[in-house]
Amino acid sequence: MPTDVLTTDADASGSEPRPIRTKRKRRVAIEWTLILIVAVMASFLVRTFAFQTFYIPSASMNPTLWQGDRIIVNKLSVDFGTINIGDIVVFKAPPGVAKLCRDPVTDLVKRVIGLPGDHLYSRGNTIYVNGTPLDQKWSVYPIIGTPISPTTVTPGHYFMMGDNHPGSCDSRRWGAVPRSDLIGKVFVRIWPLKSIKWF
Fold first, then answer.
1. Cβ-count burial of 83 within 10 angstroms (0-12 exposed, 13-18 middle, 19+ buried)?
2. CB–CB of 73/187 below 8 Å?
């Protein structure tokens, strides 16, 4: 009585023929290579255009940020958003930082306390913006230290100050920062893990 014989790609030993196994391995290798390339490119694009991590090297932002903290900044918030008083931002260090602050860092983190066109000055330990005391809803060291001389923020620039008022070398020394030098807004502290915080 005749019977139908089913044929498969497997040989008598139950394994696939060598040419098929070789093709399958090659295809898997190509797929993983493409996945890795896409992952690296995506990581590069995210870091370049969207988010970036930074390390806090000094105490100038105490008690909000501490030396050794790691933060993530949102670059898109600068490119497509608005900058407001109270925002914590990372920016390229102005040329005067190395000389006036004796600090060779290339990037700084400070808080925005003055917007383009604002008039700022300090009297005692009070900061005035456009004649009104600055309502600092965030934690600061209240003693001003170096006073803010009467100044009007030029168009397209931002006045920066560290929350550690007496221990921060900031726009009081080297002036306002152009928007083109802003890197991004700080939106989360990711290290240490016990101190994760959203801003």
1. middle
2. yes
Instruction: Give me 48's structure tokens.
Output: 């370049």
Query: What are the pLDDT digits (tens) for 99-153?
Result: 888 888 889 999 999 999 999 999 999 999 999 999 999 999 989 999 999 999 9
- 189 Cβ contact partners less than 8 Å away, ≥ 6 residues apart: 65, 69, 70, 71, 195, 196, 197, 199
- 47 to 39, 43, 178: CA distances (angstroms): 12, 6, 22
Name the least confident of 43-47, 74-78, 135-139, 140-144: 43-47
110 among known catalytic residues: yes
Q: What is the pTM of this model?
A: 0.76
Among candidate residues 58, 75, 77, 110, the one labeled active-site is 110
- Let me know if 168 is a catalytic residue: no
Say how many residues make up the chain. 199
Q: Which bin fits 146, alpha (ψ -120 to 50), beta or left (φ > 0)?
A: beta
> Cβ(184)–Cβ(90) under 8 Å?
yes
- The rounded distance, in Å, linking the Cα atoms of 145 and 119 is 19
**Token output for 166:** 């007496």
CA pair distance 189, 85, nearest whole angstrom: 20
